[in-house]
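Margin note: ligand = zinc ion.
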Amino acid sequence: METLFGDQLEQSVASSGSFADIILPVPIPKMFTYKIPRSLKEEIGIGYRVIVQFGKKKILTGIVGKVHQKPPTAYDAKPILDVLESHASVNPVQIRFWAWMAQYYCCHIGEVMNAALPSGLKLSSESKIQLNPTFDPDTCAYPLDEREEVLLKALQKKEEMSFEDCESVLGIKSIHGIIKSLVIKEAVVVFEQVKEKYSPKVENRIRLTSNFVEDKSSLEKLFHEISTKPKQEEILLKYLQEVPVYRQAGLNKNGLEKKVLTDAGMSTSSLKTLIKNGVLEEFKIIVSRFEDEAGSDSPIVLTHKQLEAQVKIKEAFEKKHTVLLHGITGSGKTELYITLIQEALQGGSQVLMLLPEIALTTHMVSRLRQVFGSSMGVYHSKYSDNERVEVWNGLLSGKFSFVVGVRSSIFLPFDSLGLLIVDEEHESSYKQYDPAPRFHARDAAIMLAWLHQAKTLLGSATPSFESFYNARTDKYGYASLDKRYGEAQLPEFHLADMLIDKKKNLLKLDFTRLMREKIQEALVNQEQVLIFQNRRGYAPYVSCEDCGWIPECEHCDVSLTYHQFGEEMRCHYCGFREKVPHVCPGCGSSKISAVGVGTERIEESLSLLFPEARIARMDLDTTRSKYGYQRLLDDFGAGNVDILVGTQMITKGLDFDRVTVVGVMDADRILYFPDFRAGERAFQQITQVAGRAGRRGKKGHVVIQSRRPEQAIFHQIISGDYRNFYLQEMGERQRFFYPPFVKMIKVSTRHKDYKTAERAARHLHNLMAEIQVKKILLGPEKGLIGKIKNQYIFESVVKLDRSSHAQAHFKQELQQQLEALQAEKDFRSVRFIVDVDPY
Ligand code: ADP
Ligand code: ZN
Ligand code: ZN
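Resulting structure:
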């Protein structure tokens, strides 16, 4: 691959070169060289979106990555077909960032581009048909059938038609056969039309015709004659009289929504008459999809502790690029962020704040909105393409200099980033699993900041071990906040032993006595309760009581989760669904029962235990719609819900006054997960969800249910002893060679044929073994889940020396081997997936 680092970017003006290397949104290992036609020479530079032909048929939007004089040696360069814009959409820093990402995460720069550009900025091409000008139906050698005649008639009127148009003309789906036949008969030609996907939001407005604007006297004459005017004009004139002159001018620029006049008492038919009489006219205007909101400039008064932390952060930034802010839940990290953001903006820098997906729809955004108003852009994954493009363009135009967004917002076109904040930096949702690039947004953010010579602030109540390690080894600066804001205290913890309660017959529907008592108390005091269970559905699986049969997915190597809603079993990996059988296919028994506990079942149990309580559930199944999550939160915030049951969705960022009890149903389930980060994650999740309790004056209670409550981790969570927990776990990681002491890379091999998958995995494994770097190589083994969506999975794990040289060398060799392997006939259909820093 062409490297894009360093001085190669100097040449950013096209006039000095005749060739351009284009980044294309396809998984190919390098950029392709195209000729810059003379006519476009002045108009092309790095970062411009261009249209090129790729292969025989495909038309693609690409980004100019480099401009130079060297013709390619292996092929004839095709010309660039067109330039899409007069300014670069993507700046040189972004392209360097993409190149870094492709290198670090072992993927192709085209894949990074694909992830980076909102699809509204990519082009789609649409197949259309046109009449063949030389076609003469009378001399045609083949007869046309009825449908073909209908299409041709329609085409004579319209000149060109998309395949969809054809479908609607004929009223049938799938018209490919008919079109093919028409092409063979030389009646039509098919061509590709490239079209932009982004469509601005257009509104119909009305305004005074130019008569009335340019000629003030005619307006005054009208005002004068007001009493003699028909009713409709009278309303309009009265309205205009009330509007000051400077606003009249504005009105005429942006126009009025019809609604303004109908609200003032004018009927739609009168409006029409005024338009017909040349008083008003209709026109179209492009409007923003985001509402205008003013910010506030009432200053934030930091507490003494917060000020201390702020000073510490600023001092650390003098010497370090990255600072970790370790502040307990409710200590006011947000307030600190706000003051730092304000300062950076005043200094003329851009700011990006990353939030985990789910936190982005909550208080955090409305809190920030209060301060920054609509000068803050929000980049959410549930946004439409058009909305994303508007945030993108808003940065280019300078409308936004501060954006808060999910992990993909690191790809936005910042050109003078000064500060990056990663809130809840320990969150695993910052890692992208699929597709490539499989990046971690926190780590990528630190790189992005470095490219901009900007600062990064990582914030968390429970930092990731990686970040804490970096702070302890002085790579990052460190500041802490160890007191909650105001009167709020940390909640009181209670450990509830499920086994003892079970023995004493006190465990009811999975709730210990202690848990039930605390919930009851909260309900009596009209306070709210959060119940955390990290498993959705009704039960993890169903099983035959007589023979132990457990239904599994037909396509994956996992058991099916039972969902009471719809009385069905679902695969959480591929979406496969099936009804629960009435009798066991193994032994014919009809005793088939649900085993284990999911959120649905807890919701049901709660309604049995607390019939008077209002209960709601928050998990993937209840929040699929765009506003589903927000609606649930609003309901909870308004006090319409007493108990909210949920998966890890409820652990993040919720800041409700009236939550005093938090229950963790099954702490063991979080702890016993076959992953070296299980302990770290359990500590984080339980601490985070506990942090939702007692955030205002009232003391909170946290009940943790476990079958082994004597484990050290619980006592470390309870005493907030992050440091000792960290030291203990790190000892193990060092002994058994886990990150951050080594760099981990996971390579998986997937194929629908078991043998082929295994053979390819072995082959690659042997090749990796030969790479000369200090490493430990494990596998290849059947994946933790051996089959997903009918693809068998084998995995090798590489534990690499931490030195950047070793990493770069290994990755480069690996890339080359993968390319060679993929070219072999036997392995062409095998998928190799490289995951750097897997989670
Ligand atoms: P964290 O993000 O650390 O969990 P928050 O920033 O959400 O904590 O702060 C907890 C609560 O305390 C919030 O309601 C916040 O508005 C309030 N708060 C924190 N610091 C201040 C301050 N300096 N002035 C006013 N309110 C504050
Ligand atoms: Zn059975
Ligand atoms: Zn499945």
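The first helix runs from residue 92 to 104.
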